[in-house]
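Attaching the record inline, Q. Sequence:
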Amino acid sequence: MASLRPNKQLGSLIEAIKEMDHQMLCEEHGEQLHLFCEDEGQLICWRCERASQHRGHTTVLVEDVCQGYKEKLQKAMTELRQLEEECVNLKAFTTQQITEWSSDFKNIQSFLHEEEKYYLWRLEEEKEQTVMRLRDNEATLGQKSHEIQSHILELEEKCQGSAQKLLQDVKNTLSRSWAVKLETPEAISLEIHTVCNVSELYFDVKKMLRSYQGM
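Structure, as predicted:
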């Protein structure tokens, strides 16, 4: 077992070196970005902190501020996931509406087909317009779902990355995430407005049958 210790220590050393390689350096000074400027929302090095650009600003160690922003990112991600779930449910409901509307239309069409071509024409026009508006809602919800998923992916990448990558432009990332809203699609009535008066049609047919019977 003792022979395994050097290999374990060597592995730990290699991991530490890899971690150092992944740490971000200040582009201006080449120093490690160990500080975070709350006023600018930027990662800075100790030399940046002493520069006039950040004089008087609130600066904290990356390890001290990282967890707080990570929790904010995770909260934003949770809210976006809830929006995405709501969006997916609305899209599924809209798809169901299209199916139900098409089914109802076929039933009405079969009834009217032999009775009145004029009503069939009006029904076809109404069907196309209603389905078109429903599909517009469906497409809008699909686009919004894609947008929300993109924000979630961005937040996941930040949360899974290093502290420096998490904090880089974190305030803008949060602002963009909080700005995402889900607008409920336009409520579209599925009531059929083109109606064939069945009672009048019945009496017309009955009257016609009586005329034939009297012949």
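Strands lie at 35-37, 42-44, 59-61. The radius of gyration is 33 Å.

More tomorrow.
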